[in-house]
Amino acid sequence: MKWMIYGANGYTGELIARQAVKEGMAPVLAGRSAEAIERLGEELECETRVFSLSFDQAKQELADIDLVLHCAGPFADTSQTMVEACLASKTHYLDITGEIEVFEYIHSKKRVKLAQEAGVLLCSGVGFDVIPTDCVARKLKELMPDATTLALGFSAAAGISRGTMKTAIRGLGSSSAERKDGKLSPFPLGAKRRRIDFGRGKKTAIAIPWGDVSTAYYTTGVPNITTWVPVPPVYAYGARLLSWFGPILGSDAVQGKLLRYVDEHVSGPDESKRGRSSTYVWGEATNEEGRKVIVRIKTASTYAFTVYGALEVVKRLISAKPVIPGSFTPAMLFGSHFIEEIEGSSSFVVDEVRL
């Protein structure tokens, strides 16, 4: 297959491009910034293309591309055009998003049907968002087929990139979310708190609108899903206070100032920090009889995992004959143990308890 990294000039896109070339792969490097893309292409000796995400231009540039790994966020702004262009050009689509609205778009009945008719595979979340938690969700479903509730989460220590920070800022004016009786349900950020042992002792955690609120439902069919991260106790209460100011934080004026600050001051964790950090992933399934199963696993740092995970998905699809068309999550494609096969990951640790 001839494949492309779109957004190769961004923080994560460049990391993936460099690792791909290091492993002997030859991606087409593409994005909107001519200077950055051409400079990177020259350094890595890769073909380059510069184009904006208008449907007509993207469709034209993807005409000879078999697979695109979309890395240009915020994905709520960019993914739909790229998906539609991929469907039109019969190009398989991957991205590294963690945004619920993107997952819902990809897995809508209309998109599933269009992908099957076009012979195209659509798979969002092939990085840390959401491979580890998606695989944990599928593992829990395998261990407890009658599970009615899933709780998923992670504890990460590495820093944050400019693109991820911008996505977080755009969400300041919105609420958290959970899957309740099969439907997405909003609630105030900070309203749900609990103590969780992610793998390094119990910590205070809050429920956040992580992508698995969407993806884990399609992977497992479990109707009730929450997603969690640890925070200092004062932050847990602060998040609740922050939600009261949602309309202000979501205003154009405040958003503009925060986004400009990110452009000027945020770059992302360096190689040393990525290399020495680990991430602890946790999941819990409960059934109606009061049985509970807990799964934990340790992975590489979030950005290092995204590089390894995304490239592993690309490599498997490049060698797959034929690729099955439709809309999938990573664990739907490769199973629960996919995470254990990615560099830097440990093996699952399973605990079973009764309530």
Question: How would you describe the overall organization of this protein?
Answer:
With 355 residues, this protein is of the alpha/beta class. α7 packs parallel to α9 (212-220) and α8 runs antiparallel to α12. The chain has helices at residues 11-22, 34-44, 55-61, 75-89, 100-106, 109-118, 131-143, 162-170, 212-220, 233-244, 246-249, 252-265, 271-276, 302-319, 330-334, and strands at 3-6, 28-31, 48-50, 67-70, 92-95, 121-123, 149-156, 176-180, 183-187, 193-197, 202-207, 224-230, 278-286, 291-300, 326-328, 349-354. A seven-stranded parallel beta sheet has the order 3-2-1-4-5-6-15, sandwiched between helices. A seven-stranded mixed beta sheet has the order 10-11-12-7-13-14-16. It starts with a strand and ends with a strand. The mean pLDDT is 88. 47% of the residues are buried.
Number of strands: 16
Mind summarizing the main beta sheet?
7 strands, parallel
> Number of DSSP helices?
15
Poorly predicted tracts of residues? none
User: Which structural class fits the helix and strand makeup?
Assistant: alpha/beta
Cα end-to-end separation: 50 Å
Q: What gross morphology would you assign? A: globular
Helical percent range?
Answer: 40-55%
The spatial strand order of the largest sheet comes to 3-2-1-4-5-6-15
Query: What is the mean pLDDT?
Result: 88
The radius of gyration computed from the alpha-carbon positions, rounded to a whole number of angstroms, is: 20 Å
Percent strand equals 15-25%
List keywords for this structure.
single chain; 355 residues; alpha/beta; 7-stranded mixed beta sheet; 15 helices; globular
